[in-house]
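As a warm-up, study this chain.
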Amino acid sequence: MSKCTVEDRKDEIISACATLYQKLSFKEITLQKIGDATTFTRTSIYNYFHTKEEIFLALLQREYELWIEELSAIEKNNSALTPEEFADKLAKSLENREQLLKLMSMNHFDMETNSRIENLIEFKKSYGNSLQAVKRCLDKFFPTMAETDKKNFMYAFFPFVYGIYPYAVVTEKQRQAMSTADINFSYHTIYELAYNCVKKLLA
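Now compare it with the structure written out below.
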């Protein structure tokens, strides 16, 4: 089988998983359901992925790569940005990647533990590239910013990004529970949370 065919098959499996994840939880999705959503048999999946976690890790990697494209476009297409303008563009890039944020909120320990080392290395490369893409933006748009401040931005921003989804996307059941527990919680969008965080970190 050619390398192109292998990549096409893997991409079909990942896309099937992505479609299912829009309607079902991680727990509800099985290799059987993923296989049923492709054009080949379930057993064929094992030629490309050994576990469900490997498929989700590959989906997360693909989402990172799509986000990196947006980050690179921000860097390339703007000669200068104010902190407010950069916060706006970075927040919009995250708003466009809800699937990425949803995957980030999952248990990475299980995904990574149940994936082969070669898959994990490829994922880590994409994760590292996202760090570099944000750092390049900081280097370009805030040249007078101290390196320690840039590092502190990264250390605060990326853990924050991992927690955005549960705060921004809330089910009716969760809203009811919060109300019944008498918690006066302010609901905000992905954009609002990200914009305010980035603007604060750059202040």
